[in-house]
Amino acid sequence: MLINKMNRVNGEITVPGDKSISHRAVMLGALADGTTRINGFLRGADCLSTIDCFRKMGIKIEESNDTVTVYGKGLHGLSTPSETLYTGNSGTTTRLLCGILAGQPFDTTITGDASICKRPMGRVTKPLELMGADIENEYCPLIIHGKKLHGIEYDMPVASAQVKTAIILAGLYSEGETVINEKEKSRDHTELMLKAMGANIKVDGLTIRVNKTESLKPQNITVPGDISSAAFFMVLGTIMPESKITIKNVGINPTRTGIIDVMREMGANITILNKRTEGGELAADITVETSRLHGTEICGDIIPRLIDELPIIATAAVFADGKTVIRDAQELKVKETNRIRAVVDEFKKAGIDITETDDGMIINGGKPIHGADFVTYGDHRMAMSLAILAQLAEGNSTLDDAKCVDVSYPSFFDDFYGLEK
Ligand code: SPQ
């Protein structure tokens, strides 16, 4: 696909619902006693995979635009799927399902696409095995033999909301208390939603305590816009000349707002208006304007708060004066693709001064760049970041696979080009 170039961008945009919250709403809705209505659901391929898996386990789920109704059957209401559960490209679906399925009275097999089959699952299966789970393989396909589980105390070796959530979900089915100690705070949507549903869960700083739970109360859940999708427009509006974009109704849960902190530190003019709480999650409108950016250093405990935004933050760094150093981001190597390698290789094609390091990258920005034939590696966040990078490149650029944006943002290119003014 040829990436069309825009001169300047202006206007208001509403990004689709948060991917992490949409997954959790379907999963916890399925385990609740009764009907959960989800408004603002992200109809992206990953969340549709989650719906598909729960339908295969006997849960009735109705879809009407971005409203999804889940007819939950309770924590013990899932039935044996007659076929393998296919999770597509979704790490969240795969890892969270392990936590739910480990304690069921039946066996299941889970697998996904080529990318999912390369992503490490040992980080989830190992702690679940300590709880009594029986899971074959550390890569998909995973064969999960349902077992009786017991609580453990687990010190998280990596900051990962998926690992944390899998243990929490297994903890709902376990005898005794499950205690999780996080190293750094990762996104806490599961904890917030479970509390609202009446689960036996307590959070004290970096420690989470879960006890066996008899029932979850169904909810009406309103999903805010995904800050990980808004991030592309935050950077676009900042780097394009004479531009201003307002992104309406974006989730600003503090465990996700590292991009705002970093962009402000780089000199971006960002205004946050209409802060409100919806369904236990903070949301607001975010306005960004053309800004002169400068390089920065991004490392330490902010990394889990912006991990998925690093490819687009790297794009901002290309147009920032001076050096940007990203460290402590080795988790990027086990995402949909190795996002350190992918960013460095593709950015080099555009003549960018970028160096790969073991846990991140170094970008010397503020220099002219040129167009190129970019490869996305089937990674939605690479595709959207490269489309934005190409806007300020001299000459034409193409993307080998623009369709992969469907994973988290099916209407991305319509929304993107719709901002041209
Ligand atoms: O679901 P998936 O494929 O893992 O998606 C990604 C993404 O970029 O959309 C990561 F590749 O987001 C993860 C995120 O990186 C979603 C997530 C969640 O919803 O719990 C948590 C993060 O992963 P992790 O490994 O840090 O737990």
Distance between the termini: 22 Å
Ligand catalogue: ligand SPQ
Mean pLDDT across residues: 98
Largest sheet: 4 strands, mixed
Question: In order across it, which strands form the biggest sheet?
Answer: 1-14-16-15
Number of helices: 12
- Give start-end ranges of low-pLDDT stretches: none
What structural category do the secondary elements indicate? alpha/beta
Strand composition percent: 15-25%
Global morphology: globular
Helix content: 25-40%
Find the count of extended strands (DSSP E, 2+ residues). 22
Radius of gyration: 21 Å
Summarize the topology:
Layout: E1 10-14, H1 19-31, E2 33-39, H2 45-56, E3 60-64, E4 67-73, E5 85-86, H3 91-101, E6 107-111, H4 122-130, E7 134-136, E8 142-145, E9 153-155, H5 161-171, E10 178-181, H6 189-196, E11 201-204, E12 207-210, E13 220-222, H7 227-239, E14 244-251, H8 258-265, E15 269-278, E16 281-289, E17 297-298, H9 310-318, E18 322-326, H10 339-349, E19 353-357, E20 360-365, E21 373-374, H11 380-389, E22 398-399, H12 412-417
Parallel strand pairs: 1-14, 2-13, 5-6, 9-10, 17-18, 21-22
Antiparallel strand pairs: 2-4, 3-4, 6-8, 7-8, 10-12, 11-12, 14-16, 15-16, 18-20, 19-20
